[in-house]
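Example with several molecule types.
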Amino acid sequence: MVKYEPPLEKYSVNIREAIVGEGEKAIKIGGENTFPFHFFEGSLPNPPGLALEILDIQPENWAQWVLEPFQDVTFDPVRWAEKCVEVFGAEILCLRLLSTDPMGRDTSPREAARITKKLADSIDVPLIVWGTGTEEKDSQVLIEVARVCSGKNLLLGPVLKGNYGQIAKAALEYGHALVAQASMDVNLTKELNIALCKFFPAERIVIDTTASALGYGLEYTFSIIESIKQFALMDRDTMMQMPILADFGGDCWRTKEAKESKEQGIFWEAITGLTFLLAGANLLILRHPDALRLIKEMIS
Amino acid sequence: MILIGEDLNVMSKEISRAMKERDPEPIRRCVVEQTRNGMDYLDLNVGPVAKDPGETMEWLVKTVQEFTDLPLCLDTTNPVAMESGLKVCKKKALINSASGATESKETMLPLVPKYSAGVVLSVINDAGLPSDADERASSILDSAAFANELGIPNEDIWIDPVLLPVGVDQRQVVAYLEFIQMIPDLAPGAKSICGLSNLSYGAPRELRGLLNHTFLVMTGRYGQHSAIVNGFDKELIRINRGEMPEIVNLVYRAMDEDDMDIFSLTQKELEYVKTTQVLKGKTLYSHSWLEV
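Resulting structure tokens for the full complex:
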């Protein structure tokens, strides 16, 4: 009898390893030379990063289940952040500067940077800082955040085709990493990375394809993340070898399924997140602490 | 390769105005220049023509024929405009186009034997655009059989595999290259045609030519019969005339993935090599494909 040998693939390149934060609690993402969870084929030195999100304003229209864990702290982003770390064990956080939305409260870059600095100083875990996706305003806000939080190695995003230049210069000068976002398009993802890499170090870039929730377009996100990993590992495309972030908590909790029951909502978010990890995401931004806990259990 | 000039096109503001106002002068300039540049056919794209379709096409065909002896490719989805144009064509015309979609098959294809014309037959069918080479093959087998039954010989069928912009779906470009090699087996004697400029739609303007030229060489190697092209693109025309054999040779080598000493290449040669790698699907496309 011939003994069956399962075929194994070897890839000669690695996904770049990106570091967020500084000091002991800094986290590394990426670095793998194989597909997600293919421990039998290659090495995946860093577990996926699992971030919890915090808003700089009181959440509006959140389902009661996802508001519950934070009810006592939503009035203060700093206390909210501390609770995420101390009570829910988050190893990385994402601060969304929703107040800066020019169509909303339109908080000044200075004020946004002040809050960010205060929050970053009060925690010892790495911090992602997220704008509103408004190119011009994000540019002002993230540049000011970069300056005020100099040396903290924040992960700033989203950086878009229309505003990457200024933000990347600030990130370079003040020592931060970036999330380059191109919506659901591998060609534009590559385009933006090429543009950034002309003056910004590739190992400080994280890719965001934009993500959708289970039942609401998840399969498109899955395919895009999967193809980026294939281009990176199989075609050895250096402009696609950055770790990938998936940000979908908001979309999950907007679904009617998530709003129907607590259990269903938590599963909705956890399953969406797990699915993106299977596609190849290296960093997830989550909303519910139980979704974080579930994913952690599943992958440990 | 047979080149069909695409510049008499309703998408051009000047031509569109000239068609509406029946002003022959801009038409003359465009026709004379494309003829002088060595086009083999001229494409007359009048669009769907909502108003006076028959009259417009008839006027245009007659006007164009005053300034050139080239055969014409009538480009409209409007069967009334098509038939009026065919009636006044002096030379064997090319109907652009029919597809495997039921309505198109039934309205356009009967005009082919009636006017002893040729026809561009695309792989599109009722299900839309096939997603790969095999689906293209099965679609064209059906449509060609339908055409044959109407008395249209394969020699009058110009198969259009449908070329999508490389920036929209690179896999479709690769599928195109695969499919075009299958044509002689699928429909012996049939010709092939593509709308070449569509390949580079959306790409940076100054780089569109490079994509188009490279693809012309690649498809030419696989036996492509004809292409609808920018009739003012001098380099494309020179390549097609065989005046740039070193570039053709280089593209062939890049297609074969020959080992090349990248550092011995000129800037322009390197651009052709990188572009070939993109078009054969070896490198993921981005608008800055030359910069990496």
